[in-house]
Design brief:
alpha/beta, 3 domains, about 40% helix, about 25% strand, globular, binds flavin-adenine dinucleotide
Length: about 450
């Protein structure tokens, strides 16, 4: 029986552990936290279709609510844009701990085993092959190592260079975030309000306030690590603009990092496959990654089960990467190009964008929620083209043109992705792909 190691209890890793164990494979998840510490002390919004894709049911109704409207603001907050929740809202909001309880329960019932309190240090390799993990409790070996250790995975970072897998993220490829829930004051603000501000008060990133019944949920996100005193400065600013945010911190209050870039160019090696944040599967602009990690779990499980010889080599695992890109990754990649465009905008340029008469774009943005990923990206590209025509700022027009050209090149390159694994062809393709996201300023 093939022995599968899931390194880290990321969402996709747990889901694939269940799917493989159900088919009789010997699967163990090694996780650094204790069982009771799994999941953060906050809520998440994600497309429930991710759960269904991983052969799970809709969670019980008392565990989630549907996502409401989101209001976007520029730095000055003078001309907001409301994204209304569609009739059949595909996104739900759930406590992170409930998500974990739900998916772990599935995996355990399907036969996956869990070892908690095991800190993974690095990959164990033999020649060209990843054969295990070195941990603080000794080394563990398996036929396939599934890396679900998240954005800073020590397994991915320790892979030999010849695997062609990117180990470190570059500047502007991850968002440093601080999330905290404060006591809820001023009940005049509706409990459903979700307000997201780009570059608030000069912060090179974003801030949000979700006014819940009991708490005001705040998030600060920045392209560089936070410096001492910045949290207080920006939270005071959010408080000034959002009278529902009290002074008492009641939940969370933690730092984390989110990949906001294109999916990794190569996610498999001999004996190795990355899933979830360790393969940068988040949506590039806003960092949601739960649904994609779950979608990837089913694709990976299908690929592994198809490999009857249990070779789990680059050649047999490549189907996982190819199919993930076809179904999800390729339609998200253009958003990474657009994120690179956003990074360079000044607060004034962002405010100006909100000032334009964006009615044409707004109508289309409203429709985005109901579209599939591929149609969503097409609609987004159309929006960018409209934007290019209506902005008067010459430098911005030029930057938008460059982004549109890159997106066009990207769609050609996606069609050229090797269908069958050959190291040479894959590395050449990966090089061209990464080049399109190179930050050039
Ligand atoms: C503040 C914040 C808000 C977010 N909000 C949303 C949202 O609303 N919707 C959404 O879809 N996504 C959201 N995300 C992103 C989301 O968390 C990830 O995309 C998603 O969890 C997929 O990542 P993952 O499960 O692969 O990895 P992770 O969630 O990072 O899980 C990795 C696991 O591996 C374990 N691990 C790490 N290192 C080791 C080690 N050395 N040894 C053993 N175990 C290890 C960790 O303890 C953890 O359990 C948010 C992220 C942050 C930080």
């Amino acid at each position: 029986m093939a022995k599968i190691i899931v390194a880290g209890g990321g969402h996709g890793g747990i889901a694939v552990a269940g799917l493989l164990a159900e088919k009789g494979l010997d699967v163990t998840v090694y996780e650094q936290r204790r069982r009771e510490d799994m999941g953060y002390d906050w809520t998440d919004i994600f497309e429930y279709s991710g759960l269904l894709a991983a052969d799970m049911d809709m969670p019980p109704e008392d565990l989630f609510c549907y996502k409401g409207d989101v209001t976007f603001y520029g730095p000055s907050e003078r001309n907001p844009f409301i994204q209304r929740s569609p009739k059949n809202q595909p996104e739900i909001k759930m406590e992170r701990k409930d998500i974990y309880n739900y998916i772990i329960d599935y995996a355990e019932k399907r036969g996956a085993k869990f070892e908690y309190g095991v800190k993974i240090e690095k990959a164990e390799c033999l020649g060209n092959r990843v054969v295990g993990i070195k941990t603080d409790k000794g080394s563990f070996y398996g036929d396939l190592i599934i890396d679900a250790c998240g954005v800073n995975s020590p397994v991915r970072k320790s892979l030999p260079h010849f695997c062609g897998i990117q180990k470190e993220l570059k500047q502007y490829e991850k968002l440093y975030v601080y999330r905290a829930f404060y006591n809820r004051i001023n009940k005049d603000v509706p409990a459903t309000e979700f307000k997201l501000t780009l570059f608030p008060n000069g912060l090179h990133g974003l801030g949000w306030v979700m006014a819940g019944e009991q708490y005001a949920d705040t998030l600060l996100g920045k392209f560089e690590p936070f410096e001492k005193d910045e949290i207080k400065k920006y939270t005071d600013y959010l408080r000034e603009k959002n009278p529902c945010v009290g002074k008492k911190k009641v939940r969370a209050g933690s730092f984390a990092e989110i990949p906001i870039r294109q999916t990794i160019a190569v996610m498999v090696a001999d004996g190795y496959a990355a899933i979830g944040d360790s393969a940068f599967m988040t949506i590039p602009i806003y960092g949601s990654g739960i649904a994609n990690a779950l979608r990837a779990s089913k694709i990976l499980a299908e690929t592994v089960l198809k490999d009857e010889d249990c070779a789990y080599s680059c050649e047999t695992l490549w189907d996982y990467e190819y199919n993930y890109y076809k179904k999800v990754g390729s339609s998200l990649a253009p958003l990474a190009t657009m994120k690179n465009l956003l990074i360079d905008l000044t607060p004034e340029q962002i405010d100006n964008l909100f000032d334009y008469d964006l009615e044409q774009v707004r109508g289309k943005i409203k429709r985005l929620n109901g579209l599939t990923d591929k149609r969503k990206v097409k609609a987004m590209i159309e929006n960018v083209l409209i934007l290019k025509n209506i902005v008067s700022d010459k430098a911005l027009k030029q930057d938008i043109s460059v982004a549109v050209k890159k997106i066009a090149k990207l769609s050609v390159l996606m069609k050229q992705m090797p269908k069958v694994y050959s190291q040479n062809e894959v590395l050449i393709w990966a090089q061209k792909y990464n080049k399109l996201f190179k930050y050039e300023k």
